[in-house]
Specification:
By secondary structure, the chain is of the alpha+beta class. About 35% of the residues lie in helices and about 15% in strands. A hairpin with a 5-residue loop joins strand 3 and strand 4. Helix 1 crosses helix 2 and helix 3 packs across helix 4.
Length: about 150
Amino acid sequence: MLSTDQIIEAMSGQGLRITDQRKTLARLFAESEGYLSPKDVYEYMGKSYSGLSFDTVYRNLRVMQELGVLEQVIFEDGVKFKASCSSGHHHHHLICLNCQKTLPIEFCPMNLTDTPDQFQVVEHKFEIFGYCRECQTEGNRDKSTKKPASKGH
């Protein structure tokens, strides 16, 4: 996972002004284990920055995601963000629906797809949702929350 300094360096490197709010966002994501919803971030930021709008928080989350410092995952209860991996190479994830532990999948299944010649792939995502070993054995799975969004396939 990227550190606070790595997130700030990436934002600065793309010409973003590094405000106290952006430093706080970088620190929040660098120190958070799980995924955070825009509402979680807004409530956290609102404690330190009165008058901060939800739109400002959401816009910053989108900018950080576009820069590659945040990863976005769509769960059944909405979009959530997490600091990007610091591995530096292309990979995908296994995500625990209970504790949100995220494990890398080093193999990319995109190479197995039969993409038609008339279609140019510019981006893809591949996540597998389930339960990590600890959540399986402890019997503390909560299937009523944190499910991924249904893709219809």
